[in-house]
Amino acid sequence: MPVHVDAVVVGLGPGGEEVAGRLADAGVDVVGVDRHLVGGECPYWGCIPSKIMVRAADLVAEGHRIPGMAGTAMVRAEWHPVARNVREATADWDDTAAVDRLTSRGCRVLRGTARLTGRDEVTVRAPDGQETVLQAGRAIVLATGTEPAPPPIPGLDGTPYWTNRDAVAAERLPRSLIVLGGGAIGLELGQAFARFGTDVTVVESAPRLLPQEEPEAGELLARVLSDEGVQVRTGARAALVVHDGNGFTLSGERGERLDAERLLVATGRRTDLAGLGVVNIGVDPDARALPVDERMRVLTASDSAPGVWALGDITGKGAFTHMAVYQAGIVVNGILRHGGAVAAYHAVPRVTFTDPEVGAVGLTEEQARERGLAVRVGLADVARSSRGYIHRAGNQGLVKVVVDDREGVLVGATSVGPWGGEVLGALTVAVHARVPVDELHRTIWAFPTFHRAIGDALRDAG
């Protein structure tokens, strides 16, 4: 017999957990479902543990910068404390505390794989095969996130390649590592391993690293990584992967050959809409993302699916924890009929936590021109703007601004450098609030700071 509830939340990552908890706080009878760990990718394999690795690697690099600036130092990097700290932060990949956090608020939690079996029905298959049918009287919320998407390279399937989850859980440093994919995940993890002594090669099929960001950012990062001893291969497509029991050999389309003990595949992520059963609410199961309206209600070919909402990665608006939590607030307001602001995506911030950090918000220059905007751009060198102020990876970095010439506002910006993600804060506010560029020109930028480059970039844009 079906279990009747007010709401079902499928996927208990940061966004789903936020919705389930807030609905329960409001007295809604809600059941949360997840087949992995409650809390999602971020606290166990993504944001939190990876930044523990990044921070540790930054400390190693800082130690090496002491000679010539602050005396002498001998740095001996050890992976064991890093692996220990990751395990402590993830509770050794145990979500008991997260489950208790939700149930204490009145939310019931089911472990299993959920599938939509009707417009108001979710069937959950537990690990032991038992099925529970949930009928939602008020709302179904879909927040299942994404999974690593390995590319269809001959020979890859069946080999013990790493995803980000394996890399984060590594108790021992590999002697050598090929990173397939020059995006945020691959570069963050690749640089961290390299700073602890692993021989790292990054292979990216696009012409530059971070292909979704400004070209100047990818080019600068490639130079920094190369200076640190990381081999960077851009415009390189993998044609074959071989694993002989001891290591990997990756062959490229142009005949190049790379050997390494481990292979980290970081080429993107995907969602399984077909497996989620979206066809049963009138959505194309082959779609790349769930179509949603400005209130996060799922759209079908003809209208919205009554009572079905979505948030996070599966909406295709940005695979970021902060995006999922932002959308969660809109979903809760919609279900509880509290009104509130609708979703707006013109100022989505994103940060790649390499050293130097790469922060970006809004549109790149290329994206703005593709939309037909008349834009002008400004570029500033952080080293010149800070007049030699040195910290972390020297003061290498840049700020780039993209100005809509007709509206006189920023539509995008990039901040690369030490604390690039923090410098991004001012740029995010400017893009989000559509602060007139004339007003930004009148802003006083403190000296000597990295954010002072914002003013120089604005002057360069004219």
Automatic annotation (TrEMBL):
Disulfide bonds join 42-47. SUPFAM superfamilies: FAD/NAD(P)-binding domain, FAD/NAD-linked reductases, dimerisation (C-terminal) domain. Residues 6-328 form the FAD/NAD(P)-binding domain. Coiled coil: none annotated. NAD(+) binds at residues 181-188, 204, 268. Keywords: FAD, Flavoprotein, NAD, Nucleotide-binding. Binds 1 FAD per subunit. The keyword NAD applies. Residues 348-457 form the Pyridine nucleotide-disulphide oxidoreductase dimerisation domain. Belongs to the class-I pyridine nucleotide-disulfide oxidoreductase family. This is Pyridine nucleotide-disulfide oxidoreductase.
